[in-house]
Amino acid sequence: MTGDNVEGGRLTLDLAFPYRLLRAGEKSRECLFLLHGSGVDETSMVPLARRMAPDAVLIAVRGRVPQEDGFRWFERITPTTFDQESIHVETTAFAAFANEAVARHGLDLDHATFLGYSNGANLVSSLMLLHPGIVRSAALLRPMPVLDKVPATDLAGTRTLIIAGAADETYGSFAPALVTLLSRHGTEIDARIVPSGHEIGEPDAAIVGQWLPGLAWTRAPSR
Fold first, then answer.
1. pLDDT for position 145
2. Does the structural domain 19-214 have CATH classification 3.40.50.1820?
3. How far is Cα 152 from Cα 113, in angstroms, rounded to an integer?
4. Does the structure show a pLDDT above 70 at 2?
């Protein structure tokens, strides 16, 4: 392990993605994987996530593609077009990482939510479509569709919250297409719009915080 403390969590480098594990003190079955936006690192999501789920175990993960002074999850061509090979490579690596991380720390994907923002949300939706069975619940903040070719994935039994920004000039107009795409593949969608731009903040924290307890943490394990 190496790196600075963030709420007691140190940067861990022994899996495919650098990450920090942050426990709230009391033993909780609830777990949030945090996937940050472009140009920052894994610490950027922690304060907001802690307000959303005060008692959850947080796994704050760092993307592996450098961007400016931070990181992203896969290569982009323009702000709204992306390198498809990079998406597939990084998504496959993250699928293995998620399984290894929960096994190592005694967690359970049946009690995990994947919380992604912007580029991080796009990695989560790609993970759902390319590697079904890992994500049971997902909260996607300011997402858009990024896959040129989508497999015939069955997402029945999963739940997804999508929060778009009414004034988001980057991804806002693309959010309805992702709602339609994921709905057609069988996930249960809760789609919201907040009076924000591409940035995220307290309106998002309030919605996610209310949505999380509604998840069936006692739901039957996936087949």
1. 97
2. yes
3. 23
4. no
